[in-house]
Amino acid sequence: MFKNYFFLISILLTTFSLSAQNFSGEIVYKIEYVAKNESFNLDSLKQARSINKSIYLITDGYYRSINYEDQKEIYDYTYNFKDNKRYRSSPSYPVTSVYDAGEVEENEKQLKIVKDSTLQILGYPCYLVRELDPEDDEKVNHLSFYTDSLKVNYTKFSKHETANWNKTLAQLDGALPLKFVNEYEEYIKINTAIKLTPKELKPEDFNYPEENTLVIPFHALDEPADRLPFTSGTINCFKRYMRKNKKLVKKYGEKVYLRFVLMADGSIKHLDALGEDQEPLNDLGIEIFNECGFKFTTGKKDGKPVNVLMGLPLRFKL
């Protein structure tokens, strides 16, 4: 009897110990950019790549990365293992792009784990992992510092082929990174964990906004969406607008970039213009789009029409 109780208690303790290793919670990363030479304009980079903070929620089978410019949320990615999809959303536009996380990367990551190269981050011992260039194993594209003190159940991400994340997690036994260093041609991007909060997370914490329109990314289409050739009616309509708005074009410029969703049924939703400090020109571009009969062929995925996020530049030449 005593042996049976001892055996049962041992199993329970072992199970508790294994589950206690699995981290569930929030990691806040500070993002910095460093120029590789003095001639590089770091301020222009910061304007183009304005993200300076990332909040990462993760638990077994789910994650969410929320990216901020100061206190303003710019966009986020969510993932759940049940449908093996990644969802990208932005508070500024009611559209969510759906990515298949099962798409296999062409070049598999080559990792070099350096356990004796350690760094303390938030009190956790971290070891170095080098990501080598698949075509040149002497060149390092990416450095990360992982800790074995914070882990997730990597089997829950076994289908996550994007960025070879399933293989990376498996190779590191589910360990989580607290620092990334990405080197580019002219600058270095550094993500460093500055706060860590363990907490219980539920599947609904990883939902994308239900009211958003779901779209398939352009690169994932089997048959791309496209603009049909302009008819004579469209061209004449465009010319009429140009004659009426010469002063406006001279004042604000010659180009507008339109964004919209081409729905599976061929209709248009969420039309807007992206140019800054040129609202009258943006309004003109939207009016021309609505009134001059632009036509498109729908994109297809797996033989079926799907919703597609589209961009269309309009140039006004006087």
Structural commentary:
- This protein has six helices and 19 strands.
- With 318 residues, it is α+β, with helices and mostly antiparallel strands.
- It folds into two domains: 197 residues, outer membrane lipoprotein receptor (LolB), chain A; 96 residues, TolA/TonB C-terminal domain (2-Layer Sandwich), CATH 3.30.2420.
- It has a twelve-stranded mixed β-sheet with strand order 7-8-9-10-11-1-2-3-4-5-6-12. A three-stranded antiparallel β-sheet has the order 15-14-19, with helices on one face. A two-stranded antiparallel ribbon has the order 13-16.
**pLDDT < 50 runs, ≥5 residues:** 1-20
Question: Number of domains in the coordinates?
Answer: 2
Largest sheet: 12 strands, mixed
Q: Please, what is the CATH homologous superfamily of the largest domain?
A: Lipoprotein localisation LolA/LolB/LppX
Mean pLDDT: 88
**Architecture (CATH level 2) name of the largest domain:** Clam
CATH topology of the largest domain: outer membrane lipoprotein receptor (LolB), chain A
Coarse shape: globular
